[in-house]
Amino acid sequence: MLVIPNSRSLRVRDLLLLPDRWSLPSDIYIFASPPPSRKLSLQTRRAAPRVRSSANLTYRFRDLLALEPLSADELTFILDQAKPFQEIQRHPLKKLATLRGKTVALAFFENSTRTRLSFATAASRLGADTMNLQAEASSLKKGETLLDTANNLNAMRPDCFVMRHASSGAADFVARHLEIPVVNAGDGTHEHPSQGLLDALTIRDRVGHLNNLNVIILGDIAHSRVARSNIHLLGKFGCRFTLCGPAMWVPRELEKIGPPDTQIRCVYRVEEALEDADVIIVLRVQTERLNEPSLSQSDYILLYQLNAERMKLAKPDALILHPGPINRGMEITPEVADGPQSAVLEQVTNGVATRMAILYLLMVGASEGTHPALEVKPDAKSKESAHASD
Questions:
Q1: pLDDT tens for the 390 residues of the chain, in order
Q2: Which of 38, 144, 184, 322 is most buried, judging by how many CB atoms fall within 10 Å of its CB?
Q3: Which is nearest to 163 in space by CA: 224, 106, 225?
Q4: Rg of the chain's alpha carbons, rounded to an integer?
Q5: Rounded Cα–Cα distance for residues 41 and 50 (Å)
Q6: Which residue in the list 8, 13, 39, 142 is annotated as catalytic?
Q7: Which of 62, 91, 116, 164 is catalytic?
Q8: d(CA 162, CA 105)
């Protein structure tokens, strides 16, 4: 078992930050370079040397637990690795052999549809097998501990562990006890790294860049791990944030959660928030996470619903994102959700490409050679597909 000492002296510049205490929900971290033995020293989780090629830098990652500790260069690298996988989604034959013979464990201790299916699709398109654990069938219902469940799944020898849990910090806890890569698919109200990455990929595709954008996050921000991941990622590119929603869901403390020097303001009038917006991230009202009395549905619609009239206050080409599932007629009207400024379905498509990149980087690691998605030409794939259908 790895023991994490209480010391800030072990901080590794640029890639690794080890916590000395769980002071905030955001205290989750990414580790690099997998250890050959869990009995080895803490140094084994430090970053592997970066391999410099003539074109760019190649990074190797141990786990993906959060976006907060990653630099802009590292985030750009992951997004660049996802780009060729986007093209694969358009081909008749979408299957690669990159992870053939490997297995991805999907352990979802909290209900999920899009994220679980997206990771399963990503693994399948890379050629990997999957093993699934879902919340309603989990042994946790019978009293088994989270660590025992993780160790039992690990005993089946998967090559990667993708997990979602209702408790902030659960993925980090499991990662400390497993030797295989762990991917955080959402932990409590802390972070949702793959959602933040796919949102950034969608913005970069539509806008052309991520730099110095006015980003509006609208809705239940206090309970949103998506909001936190987006702030940690986009803040590193100089984006400015306006957080808007009912006061009980937009506490002033959120103005301090971004990277250093990130401009974050909290406002409580949607009309004020939408002025000059480049990107609008609409969040679902998470009734399953609410412990305090909430605003009535009619009041929320009246005060905070994103509709066509309010969209006139944003820039004409403002981009609309939503992590899903959408409550049509609640936080957003159907005409806006399905309109030309909405990229909701693009987010879903980009989610598969992003998660393919994550699994590829953690389980194989990028090399200086050809990206696996570029090794087979599109016309060759079409011919293979045609032969397969004969």
A1: 333 333 222 222 222 233 333 333 333 333 333 333 332 222 223 333 333 332 455 678 899 999 999 999 999 999 999 999 999 998 888 899 999 999 999 999 988 889 999 999 999 999 999 999 876 666 666 778 999 999 999 999 999 999 999 999 999 999 999 999 999 999 999 999 999 999 999 999 999 999 999 999 999 999 899 999 999 999 999 999 999 999 989 999 899 999 999 999 999 999 999 999 999 999 988 765 555 556 788 899 999 999 999 999 999 999 999 999 998 999 999 999 999 999 999 999 999 999 999 999 999 987 656 788 877 655 544 444 444 444
A2: 184
A3: 106
A4: 21
A5: 21
A6: 142
A7: 164
A8: 6
* 114 in catalytic set: yes
Catalytic member of 45, 165, 192, 232: 192
Catalytic site residue from 58, 76, 98, 115: 115
DSSP-assigned states of every residue in 216-229: EEES--TT-HHHHH
Q: Which one, of 251, 333, 248, lies nearest residue 295 by Cα?
A: 248
Name all domains of the chain by residue range, CATH numbers in brackets.
8-191+350-381 (3.40.50.1370), 194-344 (3.40.50.1370)
Annotated catalytic residue, options 114, 177, 206, 371: 114
Give me 152's structure tokens: 């039992």
The burial of 341, by beta-carbon neighbours within 10 Å (0-12 exposed, 13-18 middle, 19 or more buried), is given as middle
Pairing of strands 51-52, 57-58: antiparallel
Asked if 58 is an active-site residue, the reply is: no
Whether 115 is catalytic is: yes
Continuous H helices in the chain: 72-88, 114-125, 146-154, 170-175, 193-207, 225-234, 270-273, 297-304, 308-311, 334-337, 344-363, 378-389
Q: Catalytic site residue 142? A: yes
